[in-house]
Predict the structure of histidine kinase.
Amino acid sequence: MFHKLYPRDQIKNYLLIDLVLTVFLFYRVLSSDTAPGLWGSLLLLLLFLVSFYIALWRRSGWLLAAVLSGQGTLTVLGIFIGPGILLFGILFADLLGKSRSKGQIAIGSAAIALSYLLVFVIRQEPLLKTENAIYLPVMIIQTLYPAIIYIREKAKSLQGELEEANQQIAMYIQQEERQRIARDLHDTLGQTLMMIKMKTELATRWVDKDPAQAKRELGEILDSSRTALKQVRELVSEMKFISLACELEHSVKLLGTAGIELRIEKPEKSPLLSSVEETMLALCVREAMTNIIKHSRAKRCTIRIEAKDEAYEIHIADDGTGIKEPDGGNGIPSMKERMKMLGGSFSIAASPAGGTTLSLMLPLRQHKKEDPA
């Protein structure tokens, strides 16, 4: 129940200080011979407590009004008792620094400085007198204190926003990483497992007719299983480099296993591609080959590679049944995403003569060099 009287977020750092200062203020006022009488002193102390309570809970215009009221109360007490009473104004200076308005802080700080000047002028005590010299630096500190508190609170707020932003970024990175792993599992490991499946079916058919051939197929299944295990290890660490030339050779073998004839047309010289670009293109080719095997029912397929002045293009055409979902599905979104990351383009459409044509275009504005080989 106590947190309803005193803010919960300030109990740990400020409660004891506020309590001690308030007790000392009451003692100093009520024990002074120059105080404005018992009832006058009690009335001013009550006004001090009300002002402090309002400033404790408010952060809008009420805060400034409470600070001005409380500092005015201390000014009156300081005129009667002495400038030492103004030292208790640190309570309001601290609360003023938690205002959301720089203008309110400026007005409140000016009021704190003015209260010191009024007390010394009315009491006709020189501020720079030897015994009063301590009050000048105290006045300066007390006047600047709200701005210091404001800057500190602002820094804490920005730190909180930064931590929240970092958490959101971390969540986004985790999500992107999960999507990357899922995509790579689909594109890389999925193809290897499909080859194992086809080889197993072949081995099953050969086991009675030609045990030697079945044994060879089982050997290839063992090799593919080792490849799958290696791919899993690579995927859990980071994306590996995939050679486009090796992927094309693998595609010939893969489609041949599925009974699809693959012809590759490529130029004698190809531009130098970065590792990321070559890997992304190779993965797109891999995804296209997987789709052809799974969905096209094709008998023949052609991969035509063109190295133009400003673009590197890969065109993949088959004579199958044609694409059913040109806007999505069958790994198309992942191919689009990869080409978009490279600043290139992706297109897929049904061929007029039947089958599907897929095109990948990579701009070569940054790749003028050619492979010297």
The chain has two domains: 2-133, 242-373. The first helix runs from residue 8 to 30. The chain has a mean pLDDT of 82. Residues 303 and 316 are 5 Å apart (CA to CA).
